[in-house]
Amino acid sequence: MKKKIKVAILILGLIFPISAKSQDSDFGNWLIYIGNKKLSQKWNLHNEVQYRNYNTIGDLEQLLLRVGLGYTFNESKNNVLLGYGYILSENYLDNNTDKVSVNEHRIFQQFTSKQKIGIVSLNHRYRFEQRFVQSDFKMRLRYFLGLNIPLTKKENNKLYFSAYNEIFLNTEPAVFDRNRLYGGIGYRINKNIRLEAGYMNQFFEKNSSDQINIVTFVNF
Question: Residue 113: how many CB atoms within 10 A of its CB?
């Protein structure tokens, strides 16, 4: 167990300097709730709330709400989902302390696939978004690769290391949108609830931002 925890700390230590090298980086906090309601053996309802701040808390960057209907197949290893998202962004004007509010309505389709390699659990997610941002229409592709490594014995299996990388690609000429790299530690309270806290670097074409993410996962 101690060896696994040391490995997790080492990985986090390798992730952190990547963002520290950025010349233009801001540090914020994201509070995230991700829920999943099982409607039947195959069908599930996804629900999600994200409260994103420019600072520790109180300086709203984005409020994101998602809901979706999913269908699971192939012995619960794969899931397809159709969803809707509403996003309120509070963007700072250039060289100004004033903000402007931007409303976005988003339709998305996604496919997720789970893999197991030894004790490591892998999660692939492919998402296609149709974004209605104010009067503009945009489309975007996203690929998420996440991993989960238990840090305690199987009979306990409460503490774990989590990491992911997600790349965002536009369908417009400026193809690269952003990349997110994350590493964190999670704790399983019971079979339905787990808590996770970690560090995320979000890299754009010309700058980057850093966040502490606090996530609650609930299955009910």
Answer: 13
